[in-house]
Amino acid sequence: AVVSTQSTGEFYGKEFYIFRSSLSEHLSVVLQQYPEKRGALLAELLSLTQIFIEKGLTGYIIVQHLMLQCFLHCSPENIQELISEKLLDQIPNFVHTKEGSKIAQRCLWYGKVKQRKLIMRTFKGHVKDMACDPNGYLVLCALFDCIDDTVQVRKTVLSEIQTCLDRIVMSISGRKLLRYLIAGRESSQTHCQVIESLKVGEDNSVSKKDPETRRREILNAISPPVLSYCTENLESLLLDNSTGSLIPTVVEHASGDMTPLLKALIAHLTTETMESYPVHWALKKILNTEANLLRDLILDTVGPETISSWVNSNRGAWTVLRVLERGEVGASAKDALKLAGVASFTESKGRDALFEFLNR
Predict the structure, then answer these.
(1) What is the pLDDT of the chain when averaged over all its residues?
(2) Per residue in 164-206, pLDDT tens?
(3) What DSSP state is assigned to residue 258?
(4) Cα(56)–Cα(297) distance, rounded to whole angstroms?
(5) Half-sphere exposure of 100 (CA within 13 A, CB side)
(6) Closest to 222 measured CA to CA, from 201, 200, 246, 194
């Protein structure tokens, strides 16, 4: 729902009532127009916000809009006054709206250690829905960024994510959350606007732990269940571009032993599956990295005849080329391809590029 300018203006106090139709719904604009009224306006808004919280009215869109203006423009001391147990209990009711999500993030950033733990407790049973919501998952990202007690985060939040990975992976927002958990603020994995919005909380005075240490502890906690899930469900994940794109992210950024996952990927490779775009894209992303375990596993475990058979598909030929041209080339695989006569395989651009490579 759109918050109307006139309705919003009615909450700015008696002095602005007659001008309500010409006021902006965004408080920052009003404060620029009437800087001399800043103190009175914020005091009025702060008082109203406290009433909204006490009466449990935070589920209404217009109330969330006014509350957010208060959180954006009031002093940290005033914001601390608002973060009461009454408000924290209501957070699950509004994390799924755009402005409610921003309020919840600021409750985490400005809240004291005990208040942050209380917020985590209120999320119990709601994590699955939040993770799959386009606004709710951002609150979880903010939580992972600021709470120092990663043991409690693992027990309260990550444990619930672990139990519903199937639903999270199938959700657009859920995949965004997993990318953030696994790859952090890599611009290739998380949109720059999301990164910038989460940077607002970096200057909070409550978090003491080094951010990289906190991120590494969370990564170490979430990586084993994600690796296990991807290994067990690899075939179904690679049926779709969106879910298949998680595999290179996990291989590149997760912590732990990648061998079982990569062996499962190799076992999935046939002339037919390699023509599948999700499989081809995943292989391309993984093989384009430098120190590459997948390339070594292919050369060590896949027979030359099998590698030769892959060349019969265009995308398979490109994959074989990437395997051979990076690092030390497996001599037996290269010789087998020469003996098999690459030029006699199904004509394709990939075959031609591989033929050219082998005859250098």
Answers:
(1) 86
(2) 999 999 999 999 999 999 999 999 999 999 999 999 999 898 9
(3) -
(4) 59
(5) 24
(6) 246
End-to-end CA distance of the chain: 64
Average pLDDT of 204-223?
95
Q: Specify the pLDDT at position 343.
A: 55
The rounded distance, in Å, linking the Cα atoms of 185 and 199 is 10
Tokens at residue 102, please?
A: 């921003």
Length of the chain: 360
- CB burial of residue 32 (10 Å; 0-12, 13-18, 19+): exposed
**What pLDDT shows up at residue 18?**
38
Quick one: DSSP state of residue 289? S
Give the distance from CA 230 to its chain's centroid.
17
Classify the C-alpha dihedral 18-23-29-33 as positive or negative.
Answer: negative
Instruction: Tell me the two tokens of residue 15.
Output: 């002095």
Q: What's the pTM value of the predicted model, to 2 decimals? A: 0.88
pLDDT at residue 10, rounded to an integer: 55
Rounded Cα distance, 214 and 162, in Å: 19
